[in-house]
Amino acid sequence: MSIKPSNFELIPNEILLEIFEYLFPYDIFQSFYFLNKRYNTFLLSLYHRIDLMNISKKNFDYHNYFLFNLIPHRINSFRCEDIFDRLIYQIHLSNFIALKYLTIENLNIDNLRLIISQLNYLQKLVYLNLQTRTNLSNENQIIFNGRLPSLIETCILNINKQISFHENHSYPKLRDLTINQCTINDILVFLHIYTPQLQQLTVTLIDENIRNKIDASHHLQSLVIHTVTIPFSRLVNSLLPSFPYLQRMSINATSIDYTNGKFSYLNPDLH
To answer: Are residues 187 and 219 located together in one domain of the fold?
Structure first.
């Protein structure tokens, strides 16, 4: 009895989805696009995760000249680094309107401002991770006056400069925030005014001065602090009254107030 050879073109879409989970869009389109009308239609109906980290120039050119023009509205995850001015001349994030997850590493200061200005176009974004280069410039402070998408749930801003927020838009969906080099006053104001539902905060605090007293309480549950100069007593007295629902607090520090460099706090009265 003869066995009929299997035909890859007859594989159901459900099986193809499982296979494509293990492949990069570059490989998928190189192998299957233009195969036939069914595959073309199927590939264009999918959402794709683009990762441009550590790829060849040939691979990037394929993304830039083909995929970015073919499927800009079907990219829901994007990861890259800031090299060769690609974020200025070749990658236009505002075209990726279906984007939900965005990670950019090795950002320089000028392109950081460019990225912030494009975030308002990404209204479906739920995850944002911006990592800047060290020693960006001689500027001591970054004024974050851009507007994050309202659906954002997780935001990581490792900017390596002091961050100050100048805006008037709240983020009711934001649950997890990581931010470095921020003052106590700025982070308290930002939390109470702009992030009413934030549950987890990781922050590097850079000074010990509190200019304004904030009486309102916040629903924050987990707090991780990195600091060098802020004494333990001032840090705890400044923050704990604002977070009555706090369940966990961890402090990583190098000051003499912290005997072994770390302090952990667990609330015995879990709310």
So the answer is: yes
pTM: 0.85
Task: Reduce the DSSP state of residue 23 to 3 states and report it.
Answer: coil
* Nearest residue to 132 via CA among 146, 148, 117, 116: 116
Round to whole Å and give the CA distance between 235 and 96.
42
| Residue 42 burial (C-beta neighbours within 10 Å; 0-12, 13-18, 19+) | middle
Q: Domain containing 124: what range?
A: 50-266
The answer to whether residue 271 sits within a structural domain is: no
Q: How many structural domains compose the chain?
A: 2
Q: For position 215, which CATH number holds?
A: 3.80.10
The H-or-E segment that residue 88 falls in is helix 86-89
Decide if 2 is inside a domain: no
- Characterise 146 by phi-psi region: left (phi > 0), alpha (psi -120 to 50), beta (else): beta
In sequence order, the 6+-apart residues with CB closer than 8 A to the CB of 89 are none
With respect to residue 3, please indicate whether it lies within any of the assigned structural domains.
no
Residue 1 in domain: no
pLDDT of 149-171, one tens digit each? 888 999 998 887 666 666 667 78
Q: Are 162 and 182 spatial neighbours (Cβ–Cβ below 8 Å)?
A: yes
* Same domain for 216 and 182: yes
DSSP tag of 135? S
Q: Do 210 and 187 contact (CB within 8 A), yes or no? A: no
Q: pLDDT at position 271, please?
A: 42
* Residue 102 three-state SS: strand
Whether residues 30 and 111 fall in one domain: no
Based on the fold, state whether residues 40 and 58 are members of the same structural domain. no
Contacts of 56 (CB under 8 A, 6+ apart): none
pLDDT in tens, 77-132: 999 999 888 998 899 999 999 999 999 999 887 788 888 888 889 999 999 999 98
